[in-house]
Structure formats: C-alpha cells, structure tokens
Amino acid sequence: MDFSFLSHTDFFRGIPPESIEERLSCLGAVQKSYDKGSYIHMAGDVVRTVSIVLSGQVLIESIDFWGSRTLIGQAGPGDLFAEAYACTDGEPLLVNVLAAQPTSILMLDIHKVLTICPQACPHHQALAENLLRIMARKNLALSRRMLHTAHKTISGRVLSYLSFLAARQHSRHITVPFDRQQLADYLGVDRSALSAELSKMHRKGLIDYRKNEFHLLKDPEET
C-alpha cells in the first residue's frame, strides 16, 4: 500500500506516512478491490465503515421505484465515501455505491476512527477533525447541486452549473468532470433532452462544446 499517497489525502492530512502505516490496524483497515460495475454498497445496507478510494472511481446513485437513475456524486483516488451513513448508527443507505471502473478501496471501522483507542495513538484526534471537515465540505457540495437543480428549465440548470465551474476554474473555457449521461443525472434531466438543449444553446450562441469541454460565449441576457 502506498502510504505516501494516503498522507496526501484529506482524511490523513497532516499525518506522516510512517504514522499512517502504524495506525491502520488500529483503525480496522481492510483493502478491497472491485470490478467495473460491481456494487460496493446497495440501498438498504447499513454500513459501519468509511472508505477511501485508492484507485479507480466510485459512483453514488439513487434509483427510484420506476428505475430512473440520479447521479448523486462520485469519488476518485483519495476521496472518501459513505462517511455520513457510517456516522449515523443504523441508518440504512438510500443510495447505491458502485465501481465505475476497476477500483480499489480502503475501508476503515468508523467506531475505531471516532473512538480514541486505549493506546492513545498520536494523530487520532486529527483524523476525527479531518473527517468533520470532509463532511462539512460535502454538505456544501450537495447544497450547490440543489441550487443548480432549483431552476425549472434545462438551460437554467446547465448555465447555473457552468457558471459555477467557470468561477471555480477562473475561465470561460470549462472542463466538466462528467460524461454526458453523468451530467444529465447530476442535473436531474433526461440525457436526450439535455443533448437537445445543449444543441439549442449552441445555436443561440450561448455555448460551444466538445465532449466535456465547454466554452461560455456570452451572457444569456444578451439573447
């Protein structure tokens, strides 16, 4: 296991690689690997572990009674997932968690993360503080998604999201971290409807795009 890599993750921030190696057994760490499309957790499961992606990518999705899928989020190398459910004792998952590609993760026992062990391991308090920061940041990310999807029109949702990315990337030339289906799921719209709306926005001169690269051309108020 690459302890140097782990030391650069948000969860292990401030903890040197040699200390991480010593702490993993204390945290009940288990490394697991999944094939593309395999489910790591399923809706209804009760989880007692918080997981770090070591390699690959994890998708978090919700599927309703009729089979409609909504992308809630994703996690790549170094990212954490399932922490909110793990911290809420006995709360069943409302989402599925699956591997978008061959993926390796590190699962940690949430009770051991939050409880100072009898050996009073150094850096243990830092892990709990890092976990709190991560959860707060994710809560803000969910709030941003709610702002994007609050718009009634597809174009409104698209422009809200692209505007946010433009501000974050400090450019009108934007890289979207989703493929077209994932973007549709994130914005809560049908993929074909999204594609049609993007073409319409292009014809209006609002945007230009190729795959996941977008360019904001002008203010929608100018049309």
Task: Give the key terms.
223 residues; 4-stranded antiparallel β-sheet; 23% strand; elongated
Please tell me about this protein's structure:
By secondary structure, this protein is an alpha+beta fold. It has helices spanning 3-7, 17-23, 83-87, 110-114, 124-149, 154-169, 180-187, 191-203, and strands at residues 30-34, 39-41, 49-55, 58-63, 69-75, 80-81, 96-99, 103-109, 173-175, 207-210, 213-216. Helices cover 38% and strands 23% of the residues. The strands form three sheets. Strands 1-8-3-6 form a four-stranded antiparallel sheet. Strands 2-7-4-5 form a four-stranded antiparallel sheet. Strands 9-11-10 form a three-stranded antiparallel sheet.
Main beta-sheet strand count, sense and barrel state:
4 strands, antiparallel
Spatially, the strands of the biggest sheet line up as 1-8-3-6
Structural class: alpha+beta
Number of helices: 8
Secondary-structure element pattern, one letter each: HHEEEEEEHEEHHHEHHEE
What's the count of strands? 11
Rg, Cα atoms, Å = 20 Å
* Parts with pLDDT < 50 across at least 5 consecutive residues: none
Mean pLDDT: 90
The span between the termini is 54 Å
Query: How much helicity do the residues have?
Result: 25-40%
Q: What overall form do the CA principal axes indicate? A: elongated
Strand content: 15-25%
Summarize the structure.
The chain is α+β, with helices and mostly antiparallel strands.
SSE map:
Layout (H helix, E strand, L loop, with lengths): L2 H5 L9 H7 L6 E5 L4 E3 L7 E7 L2 E6 L5 E7 L4 E2 L1 H5 L8 E4 L3 E7 H5 L9 H26 L4 H16 L3 E3 L4 H8 L3 H13 L3 E4 L2 E4 L7
